[in-house]
Every structure is written in structure tokens, then in C-alpha cells.
Specification:
Elements lengths: L1 H11 L3 E2 L2 E2 L2 H8 L23 E9 L4 E12 L2 E5 L9 E7 L2 E4 L2 E8 L2 E7 L2 E5 L5 E4 L3 E5 L2 E13 L11 E7 L4 E6 L15 E9 L2 E4 L17 E2 L14 E4 L9 E10 L5 E4 L3 E4 L13 E7 L5 E2 L6 E8 L4 E7 L1
Antiparallel strand pairs: 1-2, 3-4, 3-13, 4-5, 5-6, 6-7, 7-10, 8-9, 9-12, 10-11, 11-13, 12-13, 14-15, 15-19, 16-17, 16-18, 16-20, 20-21, 20-22, 23-24, 23-25, 25-26
Length: about 350
């Protein structure tokens, strides 16, 4: 059911980008471009030297397609006078462009960004060049004239009044994610989740540094779920930790909103869980994890919880929002135990 739906959406709406789905106007325009018959070699794309720190910058620019200002996160690498930026295209968020800094100006020549697919067709994406003014400590890069990307001369991304501002992320413990549904359909099971981009105190954190992990409980024996290339045909490698902004455009949605789960023994699972992981890089690289949110698959497996061992209880609605203990309706009751584990049950009031 979901896979058929995703294929239809892919043709009508287009690819999923860093901040969500590329708008329908752009999708319609892309549908009118003939796919490239021969794609260039991977070796032709820009890649920064290995071992250099990728710094996070906040992108802010005016999108002339949607007539609104957009913000998202990009990555910047400095190598002496060279500067590399990843994430400038909403169509290919993994692509890098390279510029050279001289007298306070970073000049990015027109360059090939790589191949992206749309509705089964492959397209070569080009960056059409830009100039960014760089401040003294390279913490702010600005391009009033902006830039464009294109396919076969047809403009796709088009931004003006662009500013890249360096972010100094702080170490934080991410808020606990929630599972709102685990549903079987004609193809398997899909998981619906809400993964907050806040810490435990409600402060905003960077989505680019956030990831999540799925866990399985089999009668008290817990293991990490692995996304394998044998089950997930559009993955390039096996994954146990999924970046918040990752999508394979098929089974795994951005932000974990809907994720297909495969397993021959799902009927033996007693619960499925999720936790968030927040990693701040740089010299003092540090990772912090949220509590695990457990979603019961067999109510009897957790019906014998000893309430004397419960140290904290929270309630969530079916959209994953934390609610008051007196809330009514269909809720998820999550209990944190003395040993640090959590248990969850559905309750109706």
C-alpha cells in the first residue's frame, strides 16, 4: 500500500529534500525536462579532501520559485584558500561545490554536481557558479546575487540574497522520540514516528546532527534493527543508525515519519523501540542518546509491570506530543523503571 502510494507521489510531487518535499511547481518543471541519456562518471564530482572538519552553517536565502525565504543546514569545509560547500541544491543535498577565496571573496565556478533520479530517470545537475563575500573569520558568507542550478540548461534551484552563517552547536541530550503506530499492510509493516528536534529541556537542536535507531524486544532480549541492502533495495550500504534528514525515497521517509520494517519473525516481537542520537563533532566530539521509547506489540508482555519499580510516567497522544496526565482519548503511557529501561502501553480514557 505505502510503496504504491510513494511511487505515485514521486511522479506528481517529486523527491524529498533536506527540509521536506520539493514543491509541486519544481516537480512539474522537472517532469518537462528530458532525462539525460548518458550520465557523467562519479569521479567528475567535487569531493573535499579526507580528514578535514565539516562545519555546519545555517543557510538562509530567498527562493524565487516559491517566493519565500528558506532556511536549512549546509556543511562547509575549509582547506587553506579553498572552500567546499555541501547542500546548496534541494534536488541533490549530498552534492559539494568548490570555491577559492581571494581578497575576501569566494568564487565558485560553474561545476558538475552529480546525478539524481526522478521517477526512474537520471539527470545531470550543474551548479551555475556564484560569488560569496567572506567576512574576516569566515563565519558568514553572503551572495546577494545568489546562484542557480540547472539540468540541460533548465533552472531548478534559484536563490538570491543568500547568507551562510556558522553555527556553534552545543552538546545536548535529545528529547525522547515516540512511536505512534506500527501497522501491517500488503507489503509488510510500517512504523510511524515523531522525532523531536529539541533537547530534553525543549531547546532547539540541529537536525543535521540528529539521528535515530530502531530496537527490537523479544521477550526481554533486545537488539538493534538493521536496515540491510537485501531488504532495502535503494540503500547503498547497511545501516543501524539513520540520520534524521535521510530518505531512500521509497521505504524511509525524512524524519522517520514513516519507515518500512521487514522481518520474518515480527510475530515474535514483543515491542519495538526508538531512540534519538545527537552527535556534536569537532575536536570535542561527543554523542548523547535519548531514552528509548518502547511501543508494545504484545500487551501481555508488559501487562505485569510492577508499579513499585516505576520512577517516572509520561503520556503522549497518537501524534507523539506529550500531554497532561489527565488527558483523555487514545494515549501512550510511558513508564521509566528504576533500572533505566522504559515500558509503554496504550490506554483509552
Amino acid at each position: 500500500m505505502k510503496k504504491i502510494t510513494l511511487l505515485i507521489l514521486a511522479g506528481l510531487v517529486a523527491m524529498i529534500a533536506q527540509a521536506g518535499v520539493i514543491n509541486q511547481d519544481k516537480a512539474a518543471k522537472l517532469n518537462g525536462i528530458n532525462p539525460t541519456a548518458t550520465v557523467k562518471a562519479e569521479g567528475d564530482v567535487v569531493t573535499p579532501p579526507a580528514g578535514l572538519e565539516q562545519q555546519i552553517y545555517t543557510f538562509e536565502g530567498y527562493d524565487t520559485y516559491s517566493n519565500k525565504t528558506k532556511t536549512f543546514e549546509v556543511f562547509v569545509v575549509f582547506d587553506n584558500a579553498d572552500v567546499y560547500v555541501k547542500g546548496l541544491s534541494e534536488y541533490l543535498t549530498t552534492a559539494w561545490v568548490k570555491g577559492t577565496i581571494a581578497e575576501g571573496v569566494a568564487t565558485f565556478p560553474a561545476t558538475y554536481m552529480g546525478v539524481f533520479e526522478f521517477w526512474g530517470d537520471a539527470f545531470n545537475l550543474d551548479f551555475d557558479g556564484a560569488e560569496f563575500t567572506v567576512n574576516d573569520d569566515a563565519s558568514v558568507l553572503t551572495a546577494a546575487d545568489g546562484y542557480t542550478t540547472s539540468v540541460e540548461g533548465e533552472i531548478l534551484d534559484e536563490f538570491i540574497n543568500v547568507t551562510l552563517t556558522k553555527v556553534q552547536p552545543e552538546v545536548a541530550t535529545p528529547a525522547t522520540p515516540t512511536i505512534t503506530n506500527f501497522i501491517e499492510d500488503n507489503y509488510g509493516h510500517y512504523l510511524e514516528m515523531t522525532i523531536p528536534t529539541t533537547d530534553v529541556d525543549g531547546n532547539e537542536i540541529l537536525a543535521a546532527l540528529l539521528s535515530y535507531q530502531i530496537l527490537i524486544d523479544r521477550n526481554g532480549e533486545q537488539s538493534v534493527y538493521e536496515f540491510t541492502t537485501s531488504s532495502y533495495e535503494f540503500l547503498e550500504e547497511n545501516m543501524t543508525v539513520v540520520p534524521y534528514n535521510f530518505t531512500d525515497y521509497y521505504d524511509i521517509d525524512v524524519a522517520g515519519k514513516q519507515v518500512y520494517i521487514y522481518g520474518d519473525d515480527i510475530d515474535q516481537w514483543t515491542a519495538i523501540g526508538v531512540k534519538s542520537i545527537y552527535t556534536v563533532g569537532g575536536k570535542s566530539r561527543e554523542t548523547r542518546e535519548s531514552e528509548i521509547f518502547w511501543y508494545p506489540l504484545k500487551p501481555t508482555a508488559i501487562s505485569e509491570v510492577n508499579t513499585n519499580n516505576v520512577v517516572e510516567t509520561n503520556y503522549y497522544d497518537m501524534q507523539g506530543r506529550k500531554v497532561d496526565a489527565n488527558a483523555t482519548g487514545l494515549l501512550i503511557k510511558q513508564m521509566r523503571m528504576q533500572d533505566g529501561t522504559t515500558k509503554a502501553i496504550k490506554v483509552i480514557r
